[in-house]
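Quick one: structure for this chain?
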Amino acid sequence: QVQLEESGGGLVQAGGSLRLSCAASGRTLSGYAMGWFRQAPGKEREFVVAISRIGGITHYSDSVKGRFTISRDIAKNTLYLQMNSLRPEDTAVYYCAAVYTAARTWVGVREVDYDDWGQGTQVTVSS
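Got it. Here's what it folds into:
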């Protein structure tokens, strides 16, 4: 099991940027496919973006495509989410997730695809 801790959330004006980090401990992320999810107040948690274990295969939700970028630094054992052109509707708690897999290019888009979750970081976008 890997432990995940998100950071980098905060309050930003519409049009601004934030970079979220998800630091892993306990195991190296080189064996994991990973993703970001978010949960807005009163709504269910939803998929944002995912990245494969190897090869940098990514899949973005339509709502963030072209504005958000996922990346990972194996040496730092950290996953990132660069968020640009933020909108009030991006306001949510953002969670990183990981699943240990032998698959090199598989990406998971469902919550049930992942075994390990962080506690979340709040992102608030003001209009």
